[in-house]
Amino acid sequence: MRALDHKLMRDLWRIRGQAAAIMLVVAVGVSLLVMMSGMLQSLRETRLQYYESYRLAEIFAPVTRAPMPIVERAAEIKGIAAAEGRIRGAALLDMPGQALPVRAAALSLPRSMTPRLNNLYLKNGRLLTPGHMDEVVVLDSFAKAHDLALGDHLVATMQGNRRAFQIVGFAAAPEFLFTTAPGEFVPDDARFAVLWMHEEALAAAFDVKGAVNEILVSLERGANPQDVLTKLDHLLDRYGGQGAYERKDSMSDRFITEEIAGLSATSVVVPPIFLGVAAFLLYIVITRLVQAEREQIGLIKAFGYTDFEVALHYFKMVVVIAVLGAAMGCALGLWGGRLMAGIYQTVYHFPFLVFRVEPSSLVTGVLTSVLVASAGGIFVLRGVFRLTPAVAMRPPAPIDFSRTGALNNRLRRWLDQPTRMVLRRILRNPGRIGGSVLGIAVGMGLSSAQMSLMSGFDDTLDLTFGVIDRSDVAVSFFEPMPAETVNAMAHLPGVLEVEPVRGVGAVLRNGRESYRGSVTGLVENARLNRAVNKDMSDITMPSQGIVLARALADTLDIGPGETLRVEVLDGRRPVIDVPVAEVAETLLGAPAFMRFDVLNGALGEWGRVSTVYLRVDASEMDALYAALKDMPTVAGVTQREDARAAMQKLMDTGAGAMRYVMAAIAGIITFGIVYNAARIAFGEQARDLASLRVMGFTRGETAYVLLGELAVVVLLAVPLGVGIGYYLSFLIAAGFSTDLYQIPTGFRPDAFGTAGVAVLLATVVSGALVRRDIDKVDLVATLKTRE
Amino acid sequence: MAPLFAMPAPRVGANGPNILAAPAWSASLWRRMAQNHTFKTEGLTKTYGEGEAAVHALRGVDLEIPRGEIVVLLGPSGSGKSTLLNILGGLDHATSGTAFFESENLTEMSDRALTRYRRDHVGFVFQFYNLMPSLTARENVELVTEIASDPLAVEEALGLVGLEERMDHFPAQMSGGEQQRVAIARAIAKNPTVLFCDEPTGALDSTTGRAVLHVLNDVNARLGATVLIVTHAAATARMAHRVIHFADGAIRDVVENEIRQSPDEIEW
Fold first, then answer.
1. Which of A295, A401, A417, A422 to mutate to test the interface with B (most CBs of B within 10 A)?
2. pLDDT for A516-559, tens place per residue?
3. Where are the domains of chain A?
4. CATH architecture of the region B67-93+110-263
5. Chain B, window 198-237: residues with a beta carbon less than 8 angstroms from a chain A beta carbon
6. Which ipTM was obtained for this model?
7. Which terminal residue of chain B has fewer beta carbons within 10 Å of its beta carbon, N or C?
């Protein structure tokens, strides 16, 4: 090893604390890059492969009842590659030891057991045996949630008929990556089941012999899905077509698309912040090193080393730190990626999910960090070139503070000398101070924005279940029920209060803009299921017209006074025109509200009810469930506590978990900057500090001169961080918000407080580490050396 | 030896002669005045390291330095003179023996007490000035006057070193000699009982060096501070009241100058 390389090793060892802090920042940046880009690629590929291998339909067309031959006719539509028909029905399952029935979707399998589209991935057991009408295959994730075993029996109620089925197989399917009960938007493995059974069995149960009620379609390459949708709707219209929709509009696919989008946005924004901070840190650390070693540099040059050789020496240091940090980051990223892949696989029920990182993304990670870090180093190297050997012979000139100027008299009275020292240093290095302030502020902003979002989610939960839905139980029906149902419900055991809701699936249309959603009819002065504005005030249901959520009104490009076309998808499928009465600032989803009687009036169905919300005496809950289970018209029963738990779970896994990680690692930035800034300030001021001690300043007074600068940096950074965090939280919220859920944002003192405390804590720890060094200073040795 | 009960030279503070102005015309002051020495050591040793690697910087130093004198410590590198200066200045701890500043035992003091001692009684001047680059000449002096109990006026301290005109300049705007004079002004501004100078002219040319010695001489004469100078330059010894020669960690001899030379007469 050459002498200069020995020096390199020893120098690195000497600044190991700082080097480690920088490596950590690089490592976090690179690990996020590796982890997220790998995860993104894995998710995209897995989804694509899964969809293709199991031939997931690209268009779904629900219909009331269409004769079998319609499938062949659909297949002839231009642009359609293959079509398949199936029967889909709703069922309620009695789960042993559980009073509350579980909702299920029952799907038909053709006699061949291999549908042309939407195939099953059999995980355990076997498919159905011809002729055995009592066999079912059950969705694997549901079976796991309930500890079901092959051979177990399930009792299902379909159209009011109870039947027992034997489980012969467990399967997963690409259309059920995420399972949600109809009408709910929170997935929950335990509360929604999918059953596959013989076509004949389902046809009998739902009285659709020789017919189907769902058409699945795959497209030819290059086909225009819009054209196909239109033609399909036209074809199915007379059979009660409920509006064909694309795969991307299905719940399951929407969830994973959103996850991918969120991950992609994060992977673009966050790693560069870490790498940028690392570059800045390298810049200030190496600058300090070159300053401190300028005599050595002069000497080395005097010996005959070229500028280039000397510059290379310092450049190597940058590269070593960057490469080591990046290597650590790659290892961390691979490890974290595997961990994350495990989480994703459980949440999304992929049959396979291999976290694979292309070697190229590792190379990219390392190269990026080296390049970015070098950018910081290059500036420093100019200083190395400028130094001449003669410098070594001259005594060090004091740093020139004259341009920071004299203080005016008023200031002079207020500031003691140590404070002036702090201020002048800050004024002399505005760039470095500014960089530190900005870096810490961005780190804190990132952290507080993430935490702000987390508490936003909690607020959403509280709002949904504390303000909007104050019922204990929600009961939904297969068909809209007549008004007497409300009365009947009131007489069920334990029911204290009943509130009806009418909801219809509909396509809302304004000119070319359309949205597939629903219209909800609420009674006046609703108490159990309310519509509220952002400020928690009730949305009053108008005596005519419809109230649209802001997001929905924006999507449809419509405002109050204009007329909205509502193409109802249920029942007789009327098309009605209603005026927009109001655009409401709702918090959740993209709802459209009408008054209960106004909606029913427009539909021509007086008093019809699709869901009732109940307040129930807790002691009679089981009796109520037993009664509900025996009502053939009941499609589903939701307990508020279950729904809340499911939503909490959703927020805590996947993207939710990622947010916790983000908040934690944002703190690393602060530590990296504060610790390095403290070390450098100490290095530059060691002599000054020793002089102060010799003059009789106490340790505390001396530490003030050193740490005062940091205190100012942090005090400037915290408010800036709050500002950045505030705007960042809006940005991220906008990125994550969809019409499935909108993330409430705003100033959240708790989030900013926590982030602020994290910054201060990191500062105190760094300060304490450096203060230990002050106490160890050999006063005499420091003062007798020339720097 | 100086007379046993010699009165110290009058000390001039910012508010006039401080003996009368001092709030504590007290027992402790009486005790201090009763001492005829500033420093007194007995069997002072200092050893760095242990065992075979041990370096004996001081091997039992017995010494008495009278008040108000200029004392020059001479000797080759490693003879122990700087070590003695550091112990007397409260910058280092002795290994064994005692060192008294007036009636207080420095060797028994805690770090906190030593800091207090430096703050109240000691001025230091180093070879490399050690000014705060971020403070002007005036502010460098104020650094000390702000924490001292009985300081000189800043203008007076800078006036003593002849830098009234350069008070608002930063160190980077001054020559080496000027910087050293600011360092001296800073050291004397607290009105120290004792002034320690470690190679004060080491980094200066002869003209500037002589000017600095002049200042030290003045400070001694006008403030009555005891001045200890460690130096290689034997010629400096001629301006001292007393010259202590060091060799191998011990005092070789002590010479009292019958006739002191003015710094102007000293050949460089």
1. A417
2. 888 999 998 888 888 888 777 888 899 989 999 888 888 889 99
3. 1-64+218-394, 88-207, 408-468+641-787, 495-616
4. 3-Layer(aba) Sandwich (3.40)
5. 198, 203
6. 0.73
7. N
